[in-house]
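Look over both lines:
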Amino acid sequence: MLILLLGIIFLHVAALVLLFVSTIVSEWTTGEVGTSDLWKNCTLDNIGHICNAASTGEWIQVVQAVMILSIIFSFLSLILFFCQLFTLQKGGRFFLTGAFQILAGLFVMSGAIIYTVMSPGWVPEKDTFGYSYILAWVAFPLAVISGLIYIILRKRE
């Protein structure tokens, strides 16, 4: 049982770390002359790197908001898991923890989908998606799977 709990916690923390990295690091799209992400656009000029704040369009603000919400819900889910681990009665299920983690997964999926659909009008066509974007997509199934595991999991003594 202890190994199972450690595995679940490891899966949850891995998803949370991926959410943090994908939200913070500036590699959502990369190209020959620069990178762009949720917060800033950087280009390489003959002077050096020039970074400007991200567009103030509504869609990028929505992506910023849902990515932050995914981190908050995943973190709250981890705290709820530890609280329920010590307060839940024997045989009880971790429904609230699982629901929060599944919501975190749905938020990151929504942010990645919005970025996928809306970025072609904002990012040059020859740019490609970067590793932060890919990490966001990897965090989505990890968060949903860990949420489903929490819902299925029963507390034992």
In short: The mean pLDDT is 87.
